[in-house]
Amino acid sequence: MVKIPIVEREIKIKGRTIIYRVVPKKGWAIVIKEDNVLIDHYHHSFPHIHPERDPIKYEDVYEVVEIVIKHIEKYGEIKLEKLRDELCR
Fold first, then answer.
1. Which residues, in sequence order, are CB contacts of 58 under 8 Å at separation 6+?
2. What's the sign of the alpha-carbon dihedral 81, 83, 87, 89?
3. Distance from CA of residue 73 to its chain's centroid?
4. 33 near 17, Cβ under 8 Å?
5. Helices first, then strands: H and E counts in the chain
6. CA 49, CA 45: separation in Å to the nearest integer?
7. SS3 helix, strand, coil % of the chain, rounded to 5?
8. Is residue 22 a contact partner of residue 9, using CB atoms and an 8 Å limit?
9. Domain ranges in the chain?
10. In whole angstroms, what is the distance from residue 89 CA to residue 79 CA?
11. Average pLDDT per block of 10 residues along the chain, 89 residues long
12. Residue 52 near residue 83, CB atoms below 8 Å
């Protein structure tokens, strides 16, 4: 049996640290450390943003990471309600 490795990356941008982790056959999570934001999707659930677990419209972790990067490039930080608008609506 071939074991698929866990992917974990850290991206630093404009004073923010984005960490994302992909666990094959289980799901993924994205954390923006300085803003205490968690976005995740595991097999038992739907993709969502915490703390309210608002469902997001994207399943692909890499697409969500790109949206988060562009958001930080635009605002210099996470503006939670604006990010929710980008991911959820």
1. 47, 64, 67, 87
2. positive
3. 15
4. yes
5. 2, 6
6. 12
7. 30, 35, 35
8. no
9. 7-88
10. 15
11. 87 97 94 96 88 93 98 97 94
12. no
